[in-house]
Specification:
Blueprint lengths: L1 H28 L2 E4 L3 E5 L2 H10 L4 E3 L2 E3 L3 H18 L8 E6 L2 H10 L9 E4 L4 E5 L5 H17 L5 H14 L3
Helix pairs in contact: 3-5, 5-6
Length: 180
């Protein structure tokens, strides 16, 4: 009887972990990638990328309506990156980051907690460990993206990231003066 219960328990656990692995791999299979000169944008559907582009000002409105050329997102993200580097006067040669898009506060919150982060869930955050910016698309702005790109630029520039308070002062400066 005990051997039967143990075998059943092992079977259920194996089945459970198999399901988790299959779910994670299918979630990764749905992931799409868009490359810019400085970033790899990762997203799960075109609507998410479109919303991100609208939120950071990457679409242009013309007399014919919305110009939704995909090159606009590349141009806008690279433009923000260049502006941040110019404001900070920091131009690290090997700078390439990922920008990972999440549709809402809750989905970004799960990732934020996986980094053992505490406190309020931000609109976006940079993790130097993964060299990635994680973004809540429903709330992001060009200023927020510029702020997080500043964290990435600072971390790449110094090799070993400086103290968080110093980074935050510089990132807030970028947010404030991004389009001066």
């Amino acid at each position: 009887m005990s051997r039967s219960v143990t075998s059943s328990f092992i079977f259920i656990i194996t089945l459970f972990f198999s399901f988790i692995i299959v779910s994670q791999s299918s979630a990764q299979d749905n992931q799409q990638v868009y490359e810019t000169n400085c970033c790899t944008i990762q997203y799960h559907d075109n609507e998410l990328l479109t919303n991100f582009t609208l939120r950071i000002g990457g679409f242009k409105f013309t007399s014919k309506g919305l110009d939704d050329d995909p090159a606009n997102i590349k141009k806008r993200v690279d433009e923000i990156m260049e502006k941040v580097q110019a404001l900070l006067d920091m131009h690290p040669a090997d700078l390439h980051i990922a920008i990972i898009l999440y549709p809402d506060h809750d989905s970004l919150g799960k990732v934020f907690r996986e980094f053992s982060a505490t406190g309020n869930i931000p609109i976006a955050f940079y993790a130097h460990k993964t060299k990635s910016i994680y973004v809540n698309v429903s709330s992001v702005t060009d200023g927020v993206l510029g702020h997080e790109i500043a964290h990435a630029v600072i971390s790449f520039y110094f090799g070993t990231p400086p103290p968080a308070k110093m980074q935050e002062i510089l990132a807030q400066y970028v947010d404030l003066h991004l389009w001066d």
